Each structure stands twice: as C-alpha cells, then as structure tokens.
Amino acid sequence: MRTTILAALLVGASLALCAQTMSPPATAAVNPAAVVTREQLEQRLTELKAGKEQAIANVNAFEGAIQETLRWLDELDKASTEKPTAPAPTENNK
Questions:
Q1: Helices (H), 1-82
Q2: Domain range spanning residue 51?
Q3: Per the domain annotation, does 58 fall within a domain?
C-alpha cells in the first residue's frame, strides 16, 4: 500500500515537473503544437517512463531497507528480553 502511494506521488511530481518545463510562458499566445514537436514529446515520454522505473526501483530499495531495519530492531528487542543463561559446565570450571 505504501509503495503504491509513494509511486503515485513520485509519478505525479514528475508529471507536474514536466508540465512546468514544457509549457510556454502564460503571457505568450503561441500555438503549443509549434513549440513542442512530436519527437520531443516522444523523447519526454521515454524519459518519464525511465524515471518511473527508477522511482519504483528506489521505492523497492527503501522498502527492503525498512524491512531489514525492522528485523534487526526485532532481534535487538528479543535479545534484550532474554535472560542470560549460565554456560554449561566444562572440565575447567567444575
């Protein structure tokens, strides 16, 4: 669930950035088709898809790191609640 939300936020932020960088100034009365070519849009789409894949990979890496950290915290909690046991008798300490 967290992964899906984070991925959606990253994609939304990327789309917002794309809209900001590719749109003409608000004061200009220019035909958008004359400013951005089809090839530029296709290149941008390719870049966005690659960015999306990288963002998903980053989210997965974070999720793995979080899971590992939680596991180590659990191990620490278990170790701190266990009572130390006396070592088994040996020939030297009988």
A1: 2-22, 32-35, 38-81
A2: 2-25+32-64
A3: yes
